[in-house]
């Protein structure tokens, strides 16, 4: 059973197919048609809804409003949360402030994307952060509009988010909070063929009982098997309710991120330790995807175009692999075996990702190249992590996506450049030479092999320019905070 | 009716806002933001509704040997399966010419062509079953490029050709001081309406059929459904309240899904919904035509064009669809705003084994117009002049010429004034200098700037489509219901129509209800396309209002004993006025009802002055031109090819704006959509002819972060010299082409690497990859720039 709130009503779901998406539930089961299907793949945001939960950081005295793409969210994800969709926002005949702003600024044309925008604006409104233009762009990065050109939507959002949140939801905050706390104190028991273990032991037992079951966390990739490939699913085991997998901790040497922590929850810690990777984190899909997608999932997927593996490779991350009895650790550099193939043993799962902190003499940069800045898949992702001693290259670790069948490193870079003066032209040209020949990428829908090779070399050029101590020049058309 | 409702208090409202030429909100806005504006998929389904899906081919070309649908029939939930052999009536649903079978008819014409349709108890079961068909095809080598189509001489229609003094083009070229040649490969574009294709067919008594469809052309859907079912048109009713975007993609290509749904609904006597999943939608519906064009231009040392030869090659896909008119429109716009001297323009309609490309905002215009701008850039780089100077030098006017290559005189040309205004207000020359200074100091990032004009012909080039009908009812409480033949796809047509009706009767907008477009209210309508929705339907509605006003005025004058003064009656501020006599509108309506005056009228309009002779390639295919100018500034990263559009200034001509907010919305939206076409929207087919950019993950339309940081749009505000509705101008398509300034600005930035001596070859879409390739071409050709 899964229990959650739809607006103010407690709903219990006993039986549901494992692949039932939140969008299907809303439109087909609840017959509420305000939430739209644009792509059924998490790419357009027409289906955006908000999940509300007690904010873990504030001793649960506040509510967190998060957008998700309902088209790729599985029902198990809403347990213990409040689900809000577009029909809930207006108060009787009074439009919600975000709705009114969108009307006043002429922010809807065909209107099909509008409910999704409304929900993203609503979540931002409740963040109570007085967002600037960049914040607005990030918050709405998962919503596509084909009619307006966005300008009026940006203006409406900026204007309405100037206000301190004051709506029926803030008025009911305490009641909602209390209800949610009581709901989430109950363990979910899954529905039909989706299991929702809450402990390591349960997870182990379930895996043993259902050896063919697939593990799922944020479901942002897995759901595409149902919504795009129309596959039938037998059994799923959700790891999203296991507290141990949702912890982030820090010790003297490293950051340890639970495998089931959504990227956005891990982002503050990650960026605090590695501010240089802001671009990669911001450009890692859209906000609603980052609200669900986990680092563990991105690693376990072993996709050659995932954006976290290159970063973790360059940072020499350690994976904690658990089988329910014991936890072993392996360097991530040994994890990826072949196309979507890993060294994960049968019955084993990733429990955490450990990332060693940088030393002061390390220069780190993470680059992503894609056709579009927001919510696009890397044509090439490159992360360089160079250790310098007295201006000379001591070590280079690196990670690359989109250039081979697996997320890759390039040891040759260190072998060739070790001991060279970083500021020297030689360091530039040798690095480019190494990289242009390091991989044999393929032509695909995102880019040609030729472009990938050229850009890879040029990203070393960019890195070299950006890390010169003297004569800094502008190298970027987009700045990420 | 025995007793009427009480008339409102006749107290005058004070200072009521005007209803036209002011920004009124979109008529559906409050419902859209609440999620209660219904689209076809949101309509409450009748009991027993079943769901359809299509099974498609997995090769691009060949003869069907066999279709085995056993596994489909046995699949869970399946109720019915149909192929082309199950069609009782017409099998071909080509809109103008034959060539579009409802389902594959013996031959496979493109990868992903629908071969059969399946009906099942749920959407998922239908789609899963559709994957189980076995279609055996004896494959032939598909034609997948313009080159192959030319070689094998496969065309969907014969070529068209026109020009001015075409006979002396060759000698002008011979005598010209300068000549230049250029080619451009222009990518197509997926419509990516957020609401995909969808139809709901509901059988009614005997063989009658009601269709809800997301279509820009309900009358054509009605006709094709009737033909497919082999019933008369009057048995089919099509209802279209609103689309979640159309952009041309639902002009002809919504019909197939309605027809398939209707076929299944008719056979099984139950409601049938067919909603395409996004990936299917992208495979089975046509896109903006890709073009492969070529020009030769002769010019003097000042950059003045003396002669132009152009070959326009539209890649049409497997069938004619609307391609004849689309390639024509590309040819009609190959001049953009410039006098081309002696000219010879030829347009080919290439047949390939691809989905049949179709209407898309601009309708070929953009693919022609970009050639004019490519030519100007080429001339400018050749003579070392700023492209803006060359643009101004060649505008239609006394120092150049006034006749287009198709012999239409350009009157009321606004471009000289509009360019002058934008040049001044957006500080073209100051920014040009600032950019030059920036580029000198910045080895990696290069900025570019361009100001380009738009001149776009307004009217359907198929003359008969330039007509519209309307039906207006006044009810006894004074409220008014308006019907017209246009469809609402977000462009604000219903809002403007409501404003027009309100304005005619002197009422506020809340007295007007514009209803769903229905084929039983206004018959034989044209598609809502060619930017013509308001021009045509607005006039038709106005004419219906004029008829009703005349009846009411007569009734009023008569009641005052002033029969001969009916012509002086005015409708203002919810009142009807004749000299010192005044009555509320509602009171007069009730008086008229009791006096047995008809309170309902149709209206009709046809566009005047149109004539084009396709045999001679001469005439006036357009009622008027809409103009615009835009200036874009970009930054290009010469290491990766990534770029941003930093600043955009637009002045656009909508005549007397009916609704400035809606017009600005159209302009901004069109600009961004045009920018997407020229930058990130990259259609890719593999060597087998399969579309591989088949979803939103691999085909990237502009996202919110692509909105230029500074984006200033201004309306030009000069009234239309022609007698259009309140002297406004059409706005749907023309601003799409303002985005060509982005492409020119990218080329400008790249050209800076050569000290502006090289005109970079930059095919579209100008993805970062293509930009980097153009950068590398200059760096390798030993111009300045190169290594840092």
TrEMBL record, chain A:
Record keywords, A-Z: FAD, Flavoprotein, Iron, Metal-binding, Oxidoreductase, Ubiquinone
2Fe-2S ferredoxin-type domain segment(s): 1-89
Domain FAD-binding PCMH-type stretches: 187-360
Classification via CDD domains: fer2
Source species, domain of life: Bacteria
PROSITE patterns: 2FE2S_FER_1 (PS00197), 2FE2S_FER_2 (PS51085), FAD_PCMH (PS51387)
Record-linked Pfam families: CO_deh_flav_C (PF03450), FAD_binding_5 (PF00941), Fer2 (PF00111), Fer2_2 (PF01799)
Gene Ontology terms, MF aspect: 2 iron, 2 sulfur cluster binding; FAD binding; iron ion binding; xanthine dehydrogenase activity
NCBIfam families linked: xanthine_xdhA
Protein name listed in UniProt: (2Fe-2S)-binding protein
Protein's organism: Alteromonas marina
UniProtKB/TrEMBL annotation, chain B:
A GO MF term: molybdenum ion binding
Highest taxon above the source species: Bacteria
Cofactor(s) required, per the database record: [2Fe-2S] cluster; Mo-molybdopterin; FAD; Mo-molybdopterin cytosine dinucleotide
UniProt keyword annotations, A-Z: 2Fe-2S, Iron, Iron-sulfur, Metal-binding, Molybdenum, Oxidoreductase
Ranges for domain Aldehyde oxidase/xanthine dehydrogenase a/b hammerhead: 34-141
Pfam families hit by this protein: Ald_Xan_dh_C, MoCoBD_1, MoCoBD_2
PANTHER family (alphabetical): ALDEHYDE OXIDASE 1-RELATED, XANTHINE DEHYDROGENASE
Family membership noted in the UniProt record: Belongs to the xanthine dehydrogenase family.
Name of the protein described by the UniProt record: Aldehyde oxidase
Organism (species): Alteromonas marina
């Amino acid at each position: 059973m899964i229990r959650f709130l739809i607006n103010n009503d407690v709903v219990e779901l006993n039986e549901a197919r494992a692949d039932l998406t939140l969008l299907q539930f809303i439109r087909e089961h609840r017959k509420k048609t305000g939430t739209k299907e644009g792509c059924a793949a998490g790419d357009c945001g027409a289906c955006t809804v908000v999940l509300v939960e007690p904010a873990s950081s504030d001793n649960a005295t506040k509510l967190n409003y998060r957008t998700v793409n309902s088209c790729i969210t599985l029902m198990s994800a809403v347990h213990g949360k409040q689900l809000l969709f577009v029909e809930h926002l207006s108060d009787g005949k009074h439009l919600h402030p975000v709705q009114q702003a969108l009307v006043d600024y002429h922010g809807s044309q065909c209107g099909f994307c509008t409910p999704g925008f409304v929900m993203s604006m609503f979540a931002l409104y409740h963040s109570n952060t007085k967002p600037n233009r960049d914040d607005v762009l990030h918050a709405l990065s998962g919503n596509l509009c084909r009619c307006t050109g966005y300008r009026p939507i940006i203006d409406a959002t900026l204007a309405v988010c100037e206000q301190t949140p004051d709506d029926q939801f803030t008025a009911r905050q305490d009641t909602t909070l209390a209800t949610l706390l009581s709901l989430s104190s109950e363990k979910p028991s899954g529905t039909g063929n989706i299991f929702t273990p809450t402990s390591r032991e349960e997870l182990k037992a379930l895996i043993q009982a259902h050896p063919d079951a697939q593990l799922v966390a944020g479901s942002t990739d897995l759901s595409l098997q149902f919504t795009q490939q129309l596959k039938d699913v037998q059994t799923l085991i959700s790891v999203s309710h296991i507290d141990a997998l949702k912890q982030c901790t820090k010790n003297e040497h490293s950051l340890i991120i639970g495998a089931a922590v959504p990227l956005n929850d891990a982002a503050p810690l990650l960026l605090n330790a590695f501010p240089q990777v802001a671009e990669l984190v911001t450009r890692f899909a859209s906000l609603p995807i980052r609200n669900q997608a986990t680092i563990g999932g991105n690693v376990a997927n072993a996709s050659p175009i995932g954006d976290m593996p290159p970063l973790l490779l360059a940072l020499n991350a350690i994976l904690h692999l658990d089988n329910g009895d014991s936890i072993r650790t392996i360097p991530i550099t040994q994890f990826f075996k072949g196309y979507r193939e890993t060294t994960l043993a049968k019955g084993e799962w990733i429990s955490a990702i450990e990332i060693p902190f940088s030393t002061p003499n390390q220069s780190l940069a993470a680059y992503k190249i894609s056709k579009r800045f927001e919510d696009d898949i890397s044509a090439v992702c490159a992360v360089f992590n160079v250790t310098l001693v007295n201006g000379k290259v001591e070590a280079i670790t690196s990670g690359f996506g989109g250039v081979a069948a697996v997320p890759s490193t390039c040891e040759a870079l260190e072998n060739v450049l070790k001991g060279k003066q970083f500021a020297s032209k030689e360091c530039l040209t040798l690095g480019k030479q190494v990289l242009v020949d390091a991989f044999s990428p393929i032509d695909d829908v995102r880019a040609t092999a030729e472009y990938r090779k050229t850009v890879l070399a040029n990203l070393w050029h960019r890195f070299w320019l950006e890390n010169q101590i003297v004569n800094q020049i502008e190298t970027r058309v987009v700045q990420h905070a | 009716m025995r007793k009427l409702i009480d008339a409102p208090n006749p107290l005058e409202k004070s200072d009521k806002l005007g209803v036209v030429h002011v920004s009124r909100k979109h008529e559906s806005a409050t419902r859209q933001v609440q999620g209660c504006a219904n689209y076809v998929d949101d309509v409450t389904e009748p009991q027993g509704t079943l769901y359809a899906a299509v099974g498609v081919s997995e090769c691009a070309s060949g003869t069907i040997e066999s279709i085995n649908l056993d596994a489909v029939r046995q699949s869970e939930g399946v109720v019915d399966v149909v192929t082309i052999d199950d069609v009782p009536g017409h099998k071909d649903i080509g809109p103008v010419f034959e060539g579009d079978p409802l389902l594959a008819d013996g031959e496979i014409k493109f990868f992903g062509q629908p071969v059969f349709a399946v009906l099942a108890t749920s959407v998922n079961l239908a789609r899963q079953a559709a994957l189980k068909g076995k279609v055996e095809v004896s494959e032939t080598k598909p034609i997948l490029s313009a080159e192959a189509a030319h070689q094998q001489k496969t065309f969907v229609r014969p070529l068209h050709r026109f020009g001015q003094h075409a006979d002396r083009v060759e000698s002008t070229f011979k005598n010209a001081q300068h000549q230049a040649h250029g080619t451009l490969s222009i990518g197509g574009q997926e419509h990516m309406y957020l609401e995909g294709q969808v139809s709901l067919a509901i059988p009614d008594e005997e063989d009658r059929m009601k269709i809800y469809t997301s279509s820009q052309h309900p009358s054509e859907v009605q006709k094709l459904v009737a033909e497919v079912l082999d019933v008369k048109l009057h048995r089919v009713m099509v209802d279209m309240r609103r689309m979640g975007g159309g952009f041309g993609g639902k002009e002809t290509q919504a019909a197939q899904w309605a027809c398939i749904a209707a076929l299944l609904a008719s056979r099984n006597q139950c409601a049938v919904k067919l909603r395409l999943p996004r990936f299917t939608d992208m495979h089975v519906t046509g896109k903006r035509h890709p073009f492969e064009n070529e020009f030769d231009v002769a010019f003097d040392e000042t950059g003045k064009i003396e002669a132009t030869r152009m070959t326009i090659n539209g890649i049409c896909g497997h069938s004619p669809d609307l391609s004849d008119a689309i390639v024509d429109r590309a040819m009609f716009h190959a001049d953009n705003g410039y006098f081309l001297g002696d000219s010879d323009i030829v347009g080919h309609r290439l047949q390939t084994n691809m989905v049949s490309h179709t209407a898309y905002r601009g309708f070929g215009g953009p693919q022609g117009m970009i050639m004019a701008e490519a030519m100007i850039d080429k001339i400018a780089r050749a003579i070392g002049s700023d492209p803006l100077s060359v643009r101004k030098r060649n505008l239609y006017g006394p120092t150049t010429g006034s006749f287009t290559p198709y012999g239409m005189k350009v009157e009321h040309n606004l471009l000289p004034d509009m360019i002058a205004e934008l040049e001044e207000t957006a500080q073209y020359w100051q920014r040009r200098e600032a950019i030059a200074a920036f580029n000198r100091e910045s080895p990696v990032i290069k900025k570019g700037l361009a100001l380009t004009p738009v001149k776009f012909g307004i009217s359907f080039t198929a003359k008969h489509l330039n007509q519209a009908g309307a039906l207006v009812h006044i009810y006894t409480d004074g409220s008014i219901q308006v019907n017209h033949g246009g469809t609402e796809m977000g462009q604000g047509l219903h809002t403007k129509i409501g404003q027009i009706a309100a304005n005619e009767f002197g009422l506020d907008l809340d007295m007007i209800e514009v209803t769903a477009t229905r084929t039983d209210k206004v018959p034989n309508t044209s598609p809502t396309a060619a930017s013509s929705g308001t021009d045509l339907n607005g006039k038709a509605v106005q004419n219906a209002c004029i008829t009703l006003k005349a009846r009411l005025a007569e009734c009023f004058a008569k009641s005052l004993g002033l029969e001969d003064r009916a012509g002086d009656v005015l409708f203002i501020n919810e009142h009807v006025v004749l000299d010192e006599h005044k009555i509320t509108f509602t009171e007069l309506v009730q008086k008229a009802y009791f006096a047995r005056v008809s309170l309902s009228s149709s209206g009709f309009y046809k566009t005047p002055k149109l004539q084009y002779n396709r045999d001679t390639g001469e005439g006036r295919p357009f009622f008027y031109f809409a103009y615009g100018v835009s200036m874009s500034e970009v930054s290009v990263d010469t290491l990766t090819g990534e770029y941003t559009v930093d600043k955009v200034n637009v002045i656009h001509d909508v005549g007397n704006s009916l609704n400035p907010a809606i017009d600005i919305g159209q302009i901004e939206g069109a600009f961004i959509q045009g920018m997407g076409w020229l930058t990130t929207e990259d259609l890719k087919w593999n060597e087998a002819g399969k579309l591989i950019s088949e979803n939103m993950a691999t085909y990237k339309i502009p996202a919110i972060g692509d909105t230029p940081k500074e984006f200033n749009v201004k309306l030009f505000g000069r009234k239309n010299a022609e007698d259009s509705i309140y002297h406004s101008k059409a706005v749907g398509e023309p601003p799409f082409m303002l985005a060509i300034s982005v492409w020119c600005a990218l080329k400008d930035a790249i050209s800076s690497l050569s000290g502006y001596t090289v005109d970079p070859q930059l095919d579209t879409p100008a993805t970062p990859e293509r930009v980097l390739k153009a950068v590398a071409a200059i760096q390798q050709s030993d111009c300045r720039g190169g290594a840092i």
